[in-house]
């Protein structure tokens, strides 16, 4: 079979797997909704309960200033929440036997993973839109960002979602069951809590600051915050992209190696 034919078949099979993944999410929306509820509840909690107090620590500006500070971090937390659902979905496919059946069929082997990754990224983008709509409804505005900065912000969200999704796929493939997969992926939603999502890194205790600084979420949050608010991003942009590329490579190698092993 020629290379163009192989590519065409791989594209066709991958498209089928993406549709399967999206249909599965539509038929069983409870997992997605439960994971989406966490960033929405945190957004409402921190704005309406802690907003005035937290804004004082940022130099004033009231609740609206804290909304502007908070939203970028919660958008990336939403991406992490969606990735947890991916780990669970992959684990269910592996343990319930559907992947074993796919292995016996004349389909491109990598299309199974591609379907999960592309489907998860699409769900992450949709979830970000939902959380972003809630943020706008409670007062978030991005009046200083240019069209180019909006485009860069969208690109960062997609790249970050792709990176976390590949890591989540690896976690799902390595888990013995769906519950273990969910537990393995929990850091994807805990790390934003230990970043600059809620308070500036400079205001953290000295012993804790390295935990917030040297992780993928903080530079990504600072970059997204700068893009959405039209402020400077400094070196955080390059750090965020570097983290994303490193996680994509790690997750891809981990996932493909795990998937290539014959089931025991």
Automatic annotation (TrEMBL):
Residues 30-262 form the ABC transmembrane type-2 domain. It is found in: Cell membrane; Membrane. InterPro entries: ABC2_TM, ABC2_TM_bact-type, ABC_2_transport, Nod_factor_ABC_transporter. It is a multi-pass membrane protein. Pfam families: ABC2_membrane (PF01061). The chain crosses the membrane at residues 28-50, 70-92, 113-138, 150-173, 185-201, 237-260. Keywords: Antibiotic resistance, Cell membrane, Membrane, Transmembrane, Transmembrane helix, Transport. Belongs to the ABC-2 integral membrane protein family. This is Transport permease protein. It comes from Streptomyces prasinosporus. The lineage of its organism: Bacteria, Bacillati, Actinomycetota, Actinomycetes, Kitasatosporales.
């Amino acid at each position: 079979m020629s290379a163009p034919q192989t590519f065409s078949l791989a594209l066709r099979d991958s498209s089928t797997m993406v549709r399967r993944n999206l249909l599965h999410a539509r038929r069983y929306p409870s997992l997605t909704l439960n994971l989406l509820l966490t960033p929405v509840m945190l957004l409402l909690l921190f704005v309406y309960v802690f907003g005035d107090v937290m804004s004082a620590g940022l130099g004033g500006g009231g609740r609206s200033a804290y909304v502007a500070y908070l939203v970028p971090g919660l958008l990336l937390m939403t991406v992490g929440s969606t990735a947890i659902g991916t780990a669970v979905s992959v684990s269910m496919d592996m343990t319930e036997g559907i992947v074993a059946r796919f292995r016996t069929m004349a389909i491109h082997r990598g299309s199974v993973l591609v379907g999960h990754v592309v489907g998860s990224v699409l769900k992450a983008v949709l979830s970000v839109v939902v959380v972003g709509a809630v943020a706008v409804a409670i007062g978030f505005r991005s009046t200083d960002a240019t069209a180019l900065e909006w485009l860069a912000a969208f690109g960062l969200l997609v790249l970050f979602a792709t990176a976390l999704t590949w890591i989540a796929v690896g976690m799902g493939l390595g888990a013995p069951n769906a519950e273990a997969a969910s537990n393995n992926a929990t850091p994807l939603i805990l790390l934003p809590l230990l970043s600059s999502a809620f308070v500036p890194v400079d205001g953290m205790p000295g012993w804790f600051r390295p935990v917030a600084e040297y992780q993928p979420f903080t530079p990504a949050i600072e970059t997204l915050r700068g893009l959405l608010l039209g402020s400077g991003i400094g070196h955080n942009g390059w750090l965020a992209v570097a983290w994303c590329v490193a996680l994509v490579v790690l997750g891809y190698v981990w996932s493909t190696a795990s998937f290539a092993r014959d089931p025991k």
